[in-house]
Amino acid sequence: MTVPAQAIRHEYLRHNKKFPHVWCPGCGNGIVMAALLRAIYRLELSKDEVVLASGIGCSGRMPTYLDFNTLHTTHGRALTFATGVKLANPALNVVVIMGDGDATAIGGNHFIHAARRNLNLTAIIINNSIYGMTGGQYSPTTPFGARSTTSVYGHIEQAFSIAELAVTAGAAFVARSTVYHADLIDQLIEQAMRKQGFAVVEVISNCHVQYGRRNQLGDAVEMLTRFRDQAITVSKAAKLSAEELAGRITIGVLADRDLPISTEEYDKVRQRASEEGMLR
User: Which GO terms describe its biological process (predicted)?
Assistant: First the structure.
């Protein structure tokens, strides 16, 4: 389906609220937001059928600009609010927007257990390897040796992979893209929103102001070009050794499996309890 950009802007943006946006020129958040809207448009969902929840950080501003049911919640707790929404009304399409720090540092425990429970949610995690809004501190995905405001002489901790963490924790669907691969992002988000179960889309993004500048990675265009050169598809990556994959970004679908869904299993428990006369 061809997605008309003008129709999307007219339909889905809150034109009279909080514009111009707060993101730095060249930030990848806008690319992700546009991809999300293209996916929702193709899914032909009404605005009342969609809930967007976010935490704190640059990505947390996204629901402010979009005309859906939205929640701008506390740091690291977007998934807990989203869980409450989904439990209250399982028919809603709930999408959670988070950054790498928001999702996997203060929100890491919630992230792991949302995947383990297989809640029927879509989590979009914009990973720019830094705390961009709060001053440029290192996050769980900041590479070893990288500089930040809290690692001015080089980061001494190893980064972990958000997508691989999601696979291990039990998510039903896990995918990764970069902001350079804009068309791939909305394809993966559409797949994630169609998936029954906990679906994660990690998007590797640039923060050329807080991260790129400190690590001599150039401006936004240079960082996106680097993503293009580093990216490799899942099928091609499967043919390479660990040494050959060093420094590469694997993009595409990393996991797609059918697992019991938490809300459906909970309904079964309620039904059994009712039949046995324990639920009054």
Answer: cellular respiration; small molecule metabolic process
